[in-house]
């Protein structure tokens, strides 16, 4: 039984000013959180040497959820991208068991008629990895038939369905530039809390105000506690519009769950770094 928590990235300007003062920013992040979304791989496949440096900066229990490149998911829409897919899978090999799941994030236009393409794609993937799929077409959330069709395709390879919960964020109008930007970019979809596997993955978007973020995740505390008691090992990623305090909030979420599940192992103690000086 394990709860991994993390953020959308492992470095941020606000964090660099506070505690990421050395060159090994991932190492500092990994002393605070136990997982990270590999969003950078969506834009470009890293070199194996770069990925090896990620492995060196993290312990064996740290977990990456690495996103497939957009050439595979958005430009080729899972068809005719064997070369790009192979290059990506070879590049992440140095992570070894740190690869918690390969994340297939699909565009909002990828709907129920495309599930056959997804099913064929998933069946061709190597069994060395676990897979997690994020969909954004509204029919998957509002049509029981569409949801069942997708769940059946995922079940063939024991892939997880990743929800991105933005319901708390869209509950009130934005009050800052960061919130206004997120308001135009983030998906607005119904809440989904069903786990398909023993390793569910949740993406949660709060607000700039910590108290609003915490109030919004209270239903997820109940869900995660339930999953842990069922023997599942969930991963929860905490986002906020500016992400300035996301690592602290991720740790707070873990603490809130641990109050209810005392047997849950504590998070690591953060590495303390000296403040930057001029000399």
Automatic annotation (TrEMBL):
Query: Matching Pfam families, A to Z?
Result: DUF72
Q: Which SUPFAM superfamilies match?
A: TM1631-like
Entry-linked InterPro entries: DUF72, UPF0759_sf
Q: Which stretch is the leader sequence?
A: none
PANTHER family to which the protein is assigned, alphabetical: UNCHARACTERIZED PROTEIN YECE (PTHR30348), UPF0759 PROTEIN YECE (PTHR30348:SF9)
The protein's name is DUF72 domain-containing protein
Q: Could you read off the lineage of the organism from its UniProt record?
A: Bacteria, Bacillati, Actinomycetota, Actinomycetes, Micromonosporales
């Amino acid at each position: 039984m394990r709860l991994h928590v993390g953020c959308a990235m492992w470095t941020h300007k606000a964090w660099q000013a506070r505690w990421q003062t050395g060159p090994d920013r991932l190492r500092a992040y990994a002393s605070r959180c136990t997982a990270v979304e590999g969003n950078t791989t969506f834009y470009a496949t890293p070199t194996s040497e770069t990925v090896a440096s990620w492995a060196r900066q993290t312990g064996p229990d740290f977990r990456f959820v690495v996103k497939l490149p957009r050439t595979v998911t958005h430009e080729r829409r899972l068809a005719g991208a064997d070369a790009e897919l192979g290059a990506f899978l070879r590049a992440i090999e140095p992570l070894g068991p740190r690869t918690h799941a390969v994340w297939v994030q699909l565009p909002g236009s990828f709907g129920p008629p495309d599930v056959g393409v997804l099913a064929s794609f998933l069946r061709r993937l190597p069994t060395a990895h676990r897979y997690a799929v994020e969909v954004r077409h509204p029919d998957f959330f509002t049509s029981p038939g569409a949801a069942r069709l997708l769940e059946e395709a995922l079940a063939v390879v024991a892939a997880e369905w990743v929800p991105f919960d933005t319901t708390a964020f869209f509950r009130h109008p934005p009050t800052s530039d960061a919130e206004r930007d997120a308001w135009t970019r983030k998906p607005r979809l119904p809440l989904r809390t069903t786990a398909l596997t023993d390793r569910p993955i949740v993406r949660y978007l709060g607000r700039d105000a910590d108290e609003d973020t915490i109030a919004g995740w209270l239903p997820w505390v109940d869900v995660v506690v339930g999953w842990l008691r069922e023997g599942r090992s969930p991963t929860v990623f905490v986002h906020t519009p500016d992400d300035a305090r996301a690592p602290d909030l991720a740790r707070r979420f873990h603490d809130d769950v641990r109050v209810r599940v005392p047997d849950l192992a504590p998070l690591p103690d953060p590495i303390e770094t000296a403040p930057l000086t001029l000399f």
